[in-house]
Predict the 3D structure of the following.
Amino acid sequence: MATAGTPRPIAPAQGKLGVLCVGLGAVASTFIAGVELTRRGLAKPIGSLTQMGTIRLGKRTEGRAPLIKEFVPLARLEDLVFGAWDPVPDDAFESCLHCGVLDKHEHVLPIKDFLSTIKPMPAAFDQHYVKKLEGSNVKQGKNKKDLAEQLRKDIRDFKAKHGCDRLVIVWCASTEIFITPGPAHQTLAAFEKAMETNDPSIAPSMLYAYAAIMEGVPFANGAPNLTCDIPAIEQLAKDKGVAIGGKDFKTGQTMLKTVLSPMFKARMLGVSGWYSTNILGNRDGEVLDDPESFKSKEVSKLGVLEHIFQPHLYPELYGEIYHKVRINYYPPRGDNKEGWDNIDIFGWCGYPMQIKVDFLCRDSILAAPLVLDLAIFFDLAQRAKLSGIQEWLSFYFKSPQVAPGLYPEHDLFIQQTKMKNTLRWLMGEQQITHLGVEYYEYGEK
């Protein structure tokens, strides 16, 4: 077990924390409604580590396991203030009704007064990047730099209007088309020039990331878009002392992959094939029906197995794995996604076996607590002056953003250990490595 250290200076979580969501669709509206229901005692924040999770401190014999929110100075639910941008003008109440995630009578109508006050600001939106989505609540500007400046003004105005002490932005919007990093993404000067010339390699999500960082606001990317995963934005975040990270909320099928694949690898069981398919009928499913948007999601999903299995180290077990991912738009399901996996594995003497998983999940119900945790943890990171990529929060992402030269860690339990050890380190507690505890218990030094 690592030794204890000096706690890191962390600014107090005083006053209001404004949570600005890019997108006010199923995920964001479900998140906002769930927080308000919890604040009124009408629901529980199930799925949220910041609200329900504990953290072990010290040796097992000490029996110390406080709630995370009682161990680390986190923003309180009571102090959260919500805002959003969306190309669709529906307020949060109308969005909840339209998306149909939450029960209208039990969970939406009782907080109509609150939800109706959250009206989306006009979005920096271009249908070229999300072809299956249309909207009338859209900003107009002479170029992309102008749109980014409008977003910066929105951020300042929201903070002033609501009396917020701090802000955090979480991308909860649709998946953009696949973009490969290019010259415009390498330096801040190139990036700003590309915005001024309306370079197509500058997607709308990048404008939000740029605006957030320029305003000193931490930014978490919940979609597989390139967004802040480019050198120009990464360097800007470091220079401005702003926390960033992503990408793509790890919710259903990929969450299961990051649990099952470490099991196979830990037991040295081979995998010859992994076929994954999804059906869903929400706005996300409709957007992903476009091949260019699906490409972004596919890359995010496909990278998981390669990084966990490390086929270059275990060619006999994983060197010839066939991995296929499919997503199909199926309107009757709405937000209730079905993820089906067929896994072909092999064991002793090469004998084949199969595992089949059918996950009937609720996409936004799984994503909403991630938005809450990311908002609260990114605010913590900002107050602790942890600037740049927050790799310790990889736990929440399908395709974790990492520093140049590193490969992303996908194993859910390694990610969890890294996250909790970071919290221990912040507070000057011993980081738990599970090494040496047994010797202590048996009286050996």
Remarks:
- The longest strand covers residues 270-280.
- Residues 259 and 413 are 8 Å apart (CA to CA).
- Residues 363-383 form the longest helix (21 residues).
